[in-house]
Design brief:
The chain is mainly alpha-helical. It is 45% helix and 3% strand. Strands 1-2 form a two-stranded antiparallel sheet. The longest helix has 18 residues.
């Protein structure tokens, strides 16, 4: 996946790839989707860290996977919104006025960065503040609901691969989208336990 979806030297990955280049969203030359979507990238980040937790340290392919993860964490640190600590729906286009902070992807990134530190793949000295600032931003997306429970705002449900930037940023937001609730729980569990 990394070899097909990598966006140049950014450490980030496009949302989708169609080898046949026939999908409505696929670029006819590269087969890639139009953008780096936060939640899609978040799932990939989760898979990377949880796979590394299972791969034997002596496995011949482990170093390659660690390198992919280090590049991704670095790319995430560079694209984090310095004001809120969150990441945008289209991760690397935060300068655009219509782009917005996605709770789901942001929470997945916080989990993945923190887990990468736990696994010794990235430096806590360099990335702990990224995770902490991201988590503080996520907490602003947890609001008191009318039923007295916590609601998670600013996320979408079932986005799938879109054919343009505009479709990603204009996709309907859903209160308590399942992906956002789940990822906020993952981020909360890893961030609320004492760090080494």
């Amino acid at each position: 996946m990394a070899d097909q979806l990598r966006k140049g030297g950014s450490g980030l990955f496009f949302h989708g790839y169609d080898e046949a280049r026939k999908a409505a969203w696929a670029d006819r030359v590269t087969g890639l989707s139009s953008d780096v979507w936060s939640e899609g990238l978040g799932w990939y980040a989760l898979v990377l860290v949880e796979t590394l937790a299972l791969i034997d340290p002596l496995h011949s392919g482990r170093q390659k996977v660690e390198g992919i993860l280090r590049g991704l964490v670095d790319g995430l640190a560079r694209t984090q919104d310095s004001r809120t600590g969150l990441w945008f729906q289209v991760v690397d286009k935060g300068e655009r006025a219509d782009n917005w902070h996605d709770t789901s992807g942001s929470a997945m990134f916080v989990y993945a960065i923190t887990r990468a530190m736990e696994l010794g793949c990235v430096s806590p000295g360099r990335y702990r503040s990224v995770a902490e600032k991201g988590y503080a931003g996520i907490l602003t997306k947890a609001t008191a609901g009318v039923d007295g429970m916590v609601d998670i705002i600013d996320a979408c449900d079932g986005v799938c691969v879109q054919n343009s930037y505009e479709n990603y940023v204009n996709y309907t937001k859903v209160l308590n989208a399942k992906e956002a609730v789940g990822s906020v729980l993952w981020a909360s569990v890893i961030m609320e336990k004492p760090m080494a």
